[in-house]
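note to self — DONT lose this again. spent like an hour looking for the file last time. sequence + predicted structure for the chain T wanted, 206 res
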Amino acid sequence: MRAPLIAIEGLDRSGKSTQTLKLVRRLQDSNRSVKLLKFPERTTAIGKLIDQYLKDKKYKLSDESVHLLFSANRWELQDKIIDLLTNQYIVVVDRYVYSGVAYSGAKGLKFQWCLNPDLGMPKPDVTIFLKFNDMLQVTTRSGFGEERYEESEFQKKVCAQFKKFEGFSEWHNINVDNKSIEEVHDEIWNLVEPVINGINNDIQTF
């Protein structure tokens, strides 16, 4: 028996951080051990490069190099994720492999090429994508546009790339159009609750 790995995905400013924090607090309130990880993890050596790249639009790197940096940043935490899961800590991730693939795919890189560097990384037991049909609800939110990828047309391309994961068994869409934070949280909880008592199989990988 091990703890589950749960990922929450979505476009920029889609409410991921709000929902991951609410989920973590609810798990803590139910006396479960839980750890929240956010990707990119900007405090590591590689994460600091990524942070500079995201905030400084004059900082130039090839699309391939950027993609591999994001993947390497996830690999920096691979051992930590595995250790937490095996020691019965539920791990909730705010962005994960899926974002890496979707954002690079939106730049024109091929899906499988983008996924390949993460083959072998722990695969979530539940992945929840916060989906908007009305893109204006994302692009008009406070703070949108502060970082490199926060452009409405690019976000539409990213959304199209995320759809390629809909055939993955762990993937679940939650439409958040015109829903309150609590309504979305309740839908997330309904998907997470069946696995919070533990997983019987070994850690799966991409």
